[in-house]
Write a structure and sequence with these properties.
Layout (H helix, E strand, L loop, with lengths): L3 E3 L5 E3 L9 H19 L3 H21 L6
Antiparallel strand pairs: 1-2
């Protein structure tokens, strides 16, 4: 079992792997996205589907804003 080091900004990093694991907020956003995608698969209303797609895009943008890509 690899030890985990907690950082104050909400992400944990495995000491041995050196790769950050998903932060708690990203996990929550991914769960919301998955729930919305399951709902979309069960409905036939095009307007509702488009609205759900817009909501998924908004959630993806929130997730991207949490961890902006660093330039080398």
């Amino acid at each position: 079992m690899s030890p985990n080091i907690s950082f104050s900004f909400g992400r944990t990093k495995s000491f041995y792997e050196g790769e950050p694991v998903m932060c708690e907020r990203c996990v929550e956003l991914n769960e919301q996205i998955a729930r919305i995608q399951r709902i979309c698969a069960t409905i036939n209303d095009p307007f509702a589907i488009e609205r759900f797609k817009a909501l998924i895009e908004e959630l993806e943008a929130r997730k991207a804003a949490l961890h902006p890509k660093r330039e080398p």
